Amino acid sequence: MNQPDTTPGAVVHGDAVPGGRYWSMVIRRGFTLRLVDRDGKANVSMLLYNPQNLLERYNMADTLKGQHTSKLTRGNMLYSDMGRVMLSIVEDTAGWHDTIGGITRDADIVRRYGEHRYQQYRNDFYRSGRELFLIELAKWGLGKRDLVANLNFFSKVYAGADGVLHFDPEHSRPGAHVDLRAEMDTLVVLNTAPHPMDPSPAYAPGTVDLLIYRSPPVTDDDYCLNFRPENARAWANTAIHNCQG
Amino acid sequence: MSGINLVESPLDPAKAVYREVVPAGEPWLHTLREGQTLRILDLEGNQAVDTLFYSLERPTVERYSAIDTLAAQGNVYLTAGTQLMSNEGNVMLTITADTCGRHDTLGGACATESNTVRYDLEKRPCTPVVTASCSRWRGEPEFGIASATSASNINFFMNVPVTGDGRPDLRGRDLGAGQVRRAARRTDVWCWSRTARS
């Protein structure tokens, strides 16, 4: 097994993001980002970019097509549009993460939860996933045109035989976590707004705890590397990228 | 919506204002004005038509979005009745007629780099049609589409079943049990708005 060292001394950095907030950081190759759904109510919407060339970013279609799946869990790698692995899901106690459900817009939030503006509610005001992404993306010179299909960790969206999309409101649970190992330096931009298909009548997205660990070396028997033959090839492409320094 | 919705078009091809045959593997781009309808005809069967849509007014900002389209209709397949949504949440086009019944928007387009992952590191087999189209646009100053903005596309005539346990057969074309190549499948896309704003 190739799990990160999760003993307290091995944690390089820890942070907590309450529901309805945003966060970003470059996770360098060799480090693993752990997301913890503290209360079982979190949705973590995420976009990934190459900090050396922001035109390279997470690609939903290539990730799903390359691994013949519509869900993401342990073993899956998150591909960029350049045929490389940005992050690998090396551990996962939730079992399913969404990448086709998208994010909420401002109008969705007002329609579902009512208007809660800063003027009246201060830091308890409601914001959409799109708004939160745009705030955080702006810090990196990115904007609307850089919003592509995103990940939604701890959320499960599945299609019925007729293609109708369903959301599982009982999917996650307190303490569920997922470990994302950076295979190349990766700008991680995330927010904790509710999933757009979350049927809850209250705007009450949960807190996510973030921990960054140093990753053990990737060995030939690595689970993610051997999960699909495509993963080994994407990883080889990444190795070429990484030798460019 | 069942995910398959066969609807014949009342439009007469003899009255079309424009017609072109696009050979396999070649890019094509054209402007659609509000109120116009584009018919895509699979002449020989088994052809996928990778398609991107951009706002004429703001091509670098507003474009077709797969996830917004899926979210708007709550269904993973495109068929007659589907409204094709932009990344700004506006209806760009509507599929008004469809004799194929199901089209994919999750599978994305092929590219040289992703093909090294899917097939072989030593092979660069793809004719990157979408990229070629975008490059052609870049040559025209009024556009300015970079590869980064070719993020999500439609694969007309591609059937990519997605199962409830998360296993799509993304290799599958529209060739299910007992099904043979069907030529002359038609899809009409009506341009709803060319000046969509949020």
Describe this structure in words.
The complex is a heterodimer of chains A (245) and B (198). Chain A has 245 residues and is α+β, with helices and mostly antiparallel strands. Chain A is 18% helix and 29% strand. In chain A, the strands form 3 sheets. A 6-stranded antiparallel sheet of chain A has the order 1-13-3-11-7-6. In chain A, strands 2, 4, 5, 8 and 12 form a 5-stranded antiparallel sheet that branches. The two termini of chain A are 28 Å apart. Chain B is α+β, with helices and mostly antiparallel strands and 198 residues long. Chain B is built from 3 helices and 6 strands, in the order E-E-H-E-E-H-H-E-E. The relative contact order of chain B is 0.27. The C terminus of chain B is likely disordered.
Assembly state (oligomeric): heterodimer
Report the β-strand fraction of chain B as a percent range: 15-25%
- What would the average pLDDT of chain B be, to the nearest integer? 77
Helix tally of chain A equals 5
Number of strands of chain A: 13
Instruction: Output the radius of gyration of chain A.
Output: 17 Å
